[in-house]
């Protein structure tokens, strides 16, 4: 899900709270995007047009020119009793997980005497939204809530840090940076360990053996903080499951870190470079991709449902986001649901919503459900092939009738959505096996596009440049490494490519060339069997000396015995990994 959609979705509950706090005060609340376009308006819709003029105020506020007070939308005494002029309100910026302006929140129509209070309310609300956007954008590893005082954990004051499963890419929110005493720019040169003085495995271990709930960490910069740890279990930004690491949840011998999807990450959103003509930006020179994009352009703005197929990590969600961004619905929400990651028991209420008290544990005010949240915009159903059969029938009804009935409600809500679905499964086979409804299939497959796997694409050099540019590392790839990457099978596709490059860029250092030694060990291990096979084949045609052959065979057998893990094989043979690569010709492969 992109930042725009995240902001739109996560602002809603905060808006409810703010409206409740303002009570019967006659004020208007605006949630704006970074250009000042209104995403949500509570109060006088006529004031929504003021949003555009507030974008500069938000930028100025972000540059440190607080307080950001606004000129009044209407002049005159606010009430005969008060006599104060209606002199304004408060507008504050909202930043994304990287500290970039992504929107703003404005309270308009305040009486002059209320202004300080409005500013405080606006700031607190913006802070709540920012935290939700941060958590929803967190990379695929773990998220820490930390503070020097344990009582502050779980409040708006605690610092948030999130990092990739290998602990190398770290994101920290403003409150966290203040506690670490670091400027945002310094983050790029840190790993989880250098910031928090422990590796992820050590942290997991410490959490298991510490008192339930909180662990403590010695900061790399000095000082101690208490922390609570969250792990990602699913890859859907909206459906993460929290697991407080403690004795209970640590569960047996399995390290919680192992539950993190190792090495493969999901970017929080489409980078700014893809924002303008999003579909065009995905066309980086591969013929098959160009055809996909040309087809999608033809259906842009129509009601034709799009079904995207392709291997995991091949960019299905990014493509769905791009379809949305290039559609007339771009300013409306993009709501993504991963049908595979929501427990079957929750998927119905998540999708269709529920009425107050519809079931035990239902939120007091009920929930509109994600289909209704997508109203006016695009609903992206990822892994549609994993949707349980009974729910397929309900979804079909929604798509036919264009209205949704929340659980426990007799009231239907009309919905106007563009539908994009994705799957890595073969839905026709599923229809044969009676695990997918044929009638639903024909509803969702208005246009079917297949994304090529990364190993089939001819534009790897352009993708390398694009990903490194997006990552902002200023790194380049040495020709030998580029050749090696061209030969890899990339089971994790673009997601794996990004993860490999992100780690390698940190290893190489800002602005440096990525060389072989900067690639992660586990990635090199994955490469080894391919290289071994290639070399073995070439050895058939170029007879080697007997001793060399025996050595080669020994290495290959040891590698096979260790499941292709070069580090383990090197340990068993008492030689270095580099020697293995050299003997197997991996170094020549890279230099070829
Ligand atoms: N065109 C692209 N250019 C560069 N990187 C991309 C591109 N498309 C996707 N990626 C990278 O790959 C990651 C995975 O993309 P995405 O989530 O769209 O894949 P997916 O096919 O939906 O995966 P899954 O099937 O596992 O849900 C993204 O977070 C991003 O890092």
Automatic annotation (TrEMBL):
- Entry keyword set: ATP-binding, Nucleotide-binding, Transcription, Transcription regulation
User: PROSITE patterns, alphabetically?
Assistant: SIGMA54_INTERACT_1, SIGMA54_INTERACT_2, SIGMA54_INTERACT_4
An example molecular function term from Gene Ontology annotations: sequence-specific DNA binding
- GO annotations under biological process? regulation of DNA-templated transcription
Domain Sigma-54 factor interaction, chain residue ranges per copy: 289-506
Task: Tell me where on the tree of life, at the top rank, the source sits.
Answer: Bacteria
Q: Which InterPro entries match?
A: AAA+_ATPase, AAA_lid_NorR, GAF-like_dom_sf, Homeodomain-like_sf, HTH_Fis, P-loop_NTPase, Sigma_54_int, Sigma_54_int_dom_ATP-bd_1
Write the protein's name: Sigma 54-interacting transcriptional regulator
Organism of provenance = Rugamonas fusca
